[in-house]
Design brief:
20% strand; seven-stranded mixed sheet; 3-methyl-2-oxobutanoate dehydrogenase (2-methylpropanoyl-transferring)
């Protein structure tokens, strides 16, 4: 595949899986409906036809079994890429992930590697029913032994997945499902950024907005609106949630002296809490305003009619920007 003008995130992930499977016959894709159907979001469309049922495996509806099998395959030298169909379906597999997958390497004193990638479409914005729009990333980022990443554009979706598959550590790869059909440029011949580095998505001087996954686009829209009002907003795409590239965030805050953190997950004990604490420690003498957080409410994800009220949008983020700049 050559350089694309623009491609959707969903197609970029599909292309990434293809590239990984072509490069290494030990890469297998598995999950509910990933084969003949091509996944409920059609992200794995055509893979089973091209690589066969032995490498693109339709599993039973049993998330614990999917991850347990993936761990066994990894121990036998394979590189399984397991899909959890929706974010809220991951919890039957939570025990396998946090007590087995995350611990195997340490438990074996480094002698065992478990290169499992778990793809999880996450967050809201698609008008779905209960357990189809959740943001469980903080639960997994808290677990030592797991790495967690999330792309916000086609280029990162393509490169980060290949990097995750090629590595020897278990990685949770969170896919922002409402951005699946967003298009952006992809250069398949580029040199990708390191997997766990943040990037400056937009430069600015007055305030830093740090976000990841589905909220990066919202923050870029906020920066566009703020620019019309004469405010210069820098947007940092975190990309990696465990580990977190605090150095890039710190450098940005040292320039702008203000930080607003944005994510869909509830603010209470969300990813923003750790980043706010760490940046406050590192940048205490640079900050001209308290670090503010914008996110979901500490409540179960609501029915689709209330989704727009629950999700952080342009107005809620702009309000936080105005409050930070008012100090």
């Amino acid at each position: 595949m050559a350089v694309h003008e623009k491609i959707t995130i969903a197609k970029a992930i599909n292309a990434s899986l293809r590239a990984s499977m072509e490069a290494d016959p030990k890469v297998v894709v598995m999950g509910e409906d990933v084969g003949k159907l091509g996944g409920v979001f059609r992200v794995t469309d055509g893979l089973q036809k091209d690589f066969g049922e032995d490498r693109v495996i339709d599993t039973p509806l049993a998330e614990s079994g999917i991850i347990g099998t993936a761990i066994g395959l990894a121990l036998r030298g394979y590189r399984p890429v397991a899909e959890i169909q929706f974010d809220g379906f991951v919890f039957p597999a939570y025990d396998q992930i946090v007590t087995q997958l995350a611990k195997m390497h340490a438990r074996a004193l480094g002698k065992v590697k478990v290169p499992v990638v778990i793809r999880i479409p996450y967050a809201g914005g698609i008008g779905a029913v209960e357990h189809h729009s959740e943001s469980p990333e903080a639960l997994f980022a808290h677990v030592a032994g797991l790495k967690c990443v999330t792309p916000s554009n086609a280029s990162d979706a393509y490169w980060m997945l290949q990097q995750a598959i090629a590595g020897d550590d278990p990685v949770i790869y969170f896919e922002p499902k409402r951005r699946y059909h967003d298009k952006s440029r992809l250069d398949t011949e580029a040199i990708p950024d390191p997997l766990h580095s943040a990037r400056i998505a937009r430069s600015g001087t007055d305030l830093t907005l740090a976000a990841y996954g589905p909220m990066v686009k919202v923050c870029q829209d906020v920066a566009n609106v703020a620019a019309e009002e004469g405010k210069s907003i820098e947007v940092v795409d975190l990309r990696s949630l465990s580990p977190i590239d605090f150095d890039t965030v710190q450098a940005s805050v040292e320039r702008t002296r203000r930080l607003v953190l944005v994510h869909e997950a509830p603010v209470f004990l969300g990813m923003g809490a750790e980043i706010a604490a760490r940046i406050t420690e590192r940048c205490f003498y640079h900050l001209e305003a308290p670090v503010l957080r914008v996110g979901g409410f500490h409540a179960p994800y609501p029915p689709s009619r209330l989704e727009d009220e629950y999700l952080p949008g342009l107005d809620r983020v702009l309000d936080a920007v105005d409050r930070a700049l008012a100090y």
